Structure prediction request, 965 residues.
Amino acid sequence: MKAAIVVFPGTNRERDMAIALRRVTGHEPRMVWHRETDLTGIDLVVLPGGFSYGDYLRCGAMAAHSPIMTEIRSFAQKGGHILGVCNGFQILTESGLLPGALLRNADLRFLSQDCHLRVERTDTPFTHKWQKGDVFRTPLAHGDGNYTADQSTLDRLEGEGLVAFRYATPNGQVQADDTASNPNGSVNSIAGILSENSRICGMMPHPEDLVDPLMGGVDGLPLFEGLVEALVR
Amino acid sequence: MKKTVDDSLAQEFGLTAEEYARVVSIMGRTPSLTELGVFSVMWSEHCSYKSSRKWLRTLPTKAPWVIHGPGENAGVVDIGLGYAAIFKMESHNHPSFIEPYQGAATGVGGILRDVFTMGARPIANLNALRFGNPETPRTRQIIDGAVRGIGGYGNCVGVPTVGGEINFHPAYDGNPLVNAMTVGLARKDRIFLSAAAGIGNPVVYVGSRTGRDGIHGATMSSAEFDENAMAKRPTVQVGDPFIEKLLIEACLELMATDAIVAIQDMGAAGLTSSAVEMAGKGGVGIELDLDAVPQREPGMTAYEMMLSESQERMLMVLKPDRTEVARKIFEKWELDFAIIGHLTETGHIVVKHKGQVEADIPLDPLADQAPIYDRPASKPVVPEPLGPVHAPLSLDATLIKLIGSPDLASRAWVWNQYDSTVGGQTVRRPGAADAAIVKIEDTSLALAITTDCTPRYCHADPKTGGAQAVAEAWRNITATGARPLAVTDNLNFGNPEKPEIMGQFIAAIEGMGDACRALDFPVVSGNVSLYNETRQPDGSTLAILPTPAIGALGVLDDVEKAVGLGMSDGKAVVLVGQTRGELGQSIWLREILGREDGPPPPVDLVAEKRNGDFVRQEILSGTVSACHDVSDGGIMVAVAEMVMASGAGCELESPDSGMRPEAFWFGEDQARYLVCVDNAAEFCARAAQAEVPARLIGQSGGNDLILPSGVTISAARLVVAHEAFFPALMTR
Prediction:
């Protein structure tokens, strides 16, 4: 699997993502500056976390208009795999590659803590290393992670099974109005979603920061291991 | 508005009549407005250290592992494998009272620049905060703003905030303290310094544009507050962490080339201090053409540009044939880049604007004749012994009250607003170990980092308090298994023109110096913040508790050997160090009896070193699975903290110590640790051989803390009591 990590001005979790990808692939991912326009030979495009353009407009809104995004759109049209984490998820919604939007956290404060995610789909390149209903721990760190969408979009996401991950208690209970398990207030406790062809995944928490026992665990590793297996060439 | 330069304007700028006379004598004429501005900020307390310098010189600053001590932008120590850690702590107290969010945010931004200007990628932020009485709405407003500001800046630049400390005391009502620390990492042969060199070399400005913000910020920070403090808002700078992030990346990219001769951030006193310091250190002159300075607004005068403290700006001297390489890098990152002058052999700083010479000042006398004061000091009064005290509450009720009290309650509400994992190297997050542990990527090395100070001890006995702050920092690093290396100090005090404040300052430095020498723990960087006083409506002034905050750093050669403080299951819990039951100035005395008196616990530096070296050696040999130093709240609180951190319980034994239970369990004797070990007898035998006191105090297991009386408190109940304070306070 050849992975590219896209770096926008203000991106700050590109090195975390590189560590996770290097751990599963054994080689360095390609760092792609947002002004570049070439994704030749790339199997997976990753939009990492951070504060692209300072998040001064809406989170991800400026980055969604960067030169590389044209190429990323065509990469997506050709069936390419894209992972967007945190600010990367926000960029995917702002650019229309995934539906919905990320609002300010319900209590209007930045949140940095561990959360638990329940796996809702296992037939995708991002989730196939888990069993349906598995719960894993992962850090989150964001001010705007409160997922929302209009009712028809939600109906479609739920109806077509496009929710990849939900915030849950450690034993897998999902309760949207429980601020302990659904800390940012996301609708239906949605933490990550998929495109219709399940080749684009956006999620708020940071599995890339939990891939090393030294840092407190390897709960995030299955996502990356799964991608390597699915995208082997 | 054309101002006449005279005695009264000089006084308005914070210069005394004598200092102004010296300016006139150096210039041989009446200075221009811009020149007066330059002198006044360079000779402000904030920039010149005129009251503190004499005493700072007494601190030990050398060790074989120290690469650069005080005098550079930050301290630099060798951590092995060709790497250097670069670190410093700096205050942003005055602005944080006036405008908490921006004051705290720009405090973080400023200390980050001090570190990356030396070639280091910032890898960790910490902060030491002191707030007033939590019961007042103003305190809550300041907490909210300061925490949001620290998070807002640190989270955006992508540097993890991994630790810190918070105290409350009404003495900080009018002067909260925001001390921010950054640790950076560089190859030790790639350190960048600020001494300018090469006559004719271009002087380059990069970063944000210059605006009218923060003018005379350094002067504002060199005076106490009066009832008009809020009118000083225009002196507070406004931060832009996004620009800072770009600046970090652009500077590090440029630093990988050979283009830079010297580099310095524009901090306090902005363009003035960076230009003066770079040229002064290099023994060259400098000429600036302000027409070339990128400006945010039209019509700025030379005076305004020289004194602006607009954030996220750097000044560099480049090799002349490398300016285009540099320009391209800054253009890539969409930052302003301007050649605004060059180095000269005149020995003067010459400032030109619109064809006029606005300032022409000889650099040597500006530095050499800067005022330095040996201010009168009175010896601090030795506190009376505490005398007998009696416990009104049971041990369990006391414990529950203490762990929920403002100084001991969980800080999770605060930490959870700081990104502590970005970078992917955070081995121990806040609250998981006595010091934050951050790994050096791709190596086995890790840094252990902490900030410490116990202001109530410093107030009662500044010398003991100064020593205690250093000793506790050393202990916290030791408790992770790391080897303590060096210290950065952030000395926060009141008005040095008052003998009693100057006495506190001198005594605290004496205590710090003693501890640093005894523990082989040199001071490599620091910052002094004086005039932390506020005039009260009745004309009296309220000074802060003396607060010599210590930031410290140690190294673990093998990160796998690090231990945290969470209680391990099924182990013997052993207390290392001697317990005499020191309750003077303890949290117990204050929270349970409402008293703040007696002497602080004595600091025995020989015992401190012996006990610490023993504990570290045991951790590194693998016999210790958890370790926590015993500090505020004593043994019982330390045990409870270990239980809460992991959820594993502990059954405590009756101490049979011959002293009253509250003295044994809540006394704050120094040089003590709690450790979890498999074999207590063998551990204690090795301790005895090293002449280190050690005794078994309990067994871990289950989910409850079981007191010697048999009273049982579940870990879950402890957590509830511990975590209630901040959310309840901040949602009022």
Notes: The helical segments of chain A are 14-25, 67-77, 87-94, 151-159, 221-230. The longest strand of chain A covers residues 111-119. The longest helix of chain A spans residues 14-25.
